[in-house]
Design a protein that fits this description.
Layout (H helix, E strand, L loop, with lengths): L8 E10 L1 E2 L9 E3 L10 E3 L11 E4 L6 E11 L2 E4 L12 E5 L4 E2 L9 E15 L2 H9 L7 E5 L10 E4 L2 E10 L7 E7 L2
Antiparallel strand pairs: 1-10, 1-12, 2-9, 3-8, 4-7, 5-6, 5-8, 6-7, 10-11, 11-14, 12-13, 13-14
Length: 196
């Protein structure tokens, strides 16, 4: 029996991203939409029209609440595929807006000079979350290893970070550890800590 046949949860992978200000839309600039779902960590996007998109342009990708600004790479426009200079931070859906902006904008900071962040969904995937046995947690702790009190199994997800967290059935689990459980990219095993 494969691990994938045991997946019974929908895992929402979440991440905090810095909020940016500025990056005003370029008058007469590119204005199109994504034609395919795009995963977090992707370096390319598929667009409905590449008219007006050129190397060095700044694009605002995504809809309200999950937008990000990326620059078009040199030689980065080929037919209806645009290559970016940096990977996307969150996943985007087909139909999300892609608009040219004047610049990358700047990170919004609070009164203490700290970046203002917003929560975004990186991906929604199938997986399995279950508690670890008390014996397993104790043995790892004695060995000096932090593995968490829960474990999740899911298919490989590019760009997944230990700063991310999962939301499953209304509960939040912080990701403490990411391991390639099969050793050959078969599936991931995440060490989790139940937060709420």
């Amino acid at each position: 029996m494969s691990i994938q046949s045991r997946y019974r949860h929908t895992l929402a992978v979440k991440r905090l991203t810095a909020t940016t200000a500025g990056g005003a839309e370029t008058v007469g600039g590119a204005d199109t939409t994504l034609t395919a779902d795009t995963a977090a960590a992707a370096l390319t996007i598929a667009v409905a029209s590449a008219t007006g998109i050129a190397a060095g342009d700044w694009l605002r990708i995504g809809d309200t609440g999950e937008t990000e600004i990326r620059q078009v790479a040199v030689g980065g426009v080929a037919a209806l595929v645009v290559t970016l200079t940096a990977p996307l931070s969150v996943a985007h859906d087909s139909g999300d807006q892609v608009r040219e902006v004047d610049d990358a904008g700047s990170v919004t900071v609070d009164t203490y000079g700290q970046p203002v962040t917003s929560e975004g969904t990186v991906a929604t995937v199938a997986g399995l979350v279950q508690p670890r046995s008390a014996r397993e947690v104790a043995a790892a702790s004695q060995a000096g290893v932090v593995i968490g009190n829960h474990v999740a199994y899911l298919d490989p997800l590019p760009g997944l970070l230990t700063g991310d967290w999962l939301e499953v059935d209304g509960l939040r689990y912080d990701i403490l550890m990411i391991a390639d459980a099969g050793g050959v990219g078969h599936h991931l095993e995440l060490g989790l800590r139940l937060v709420s």
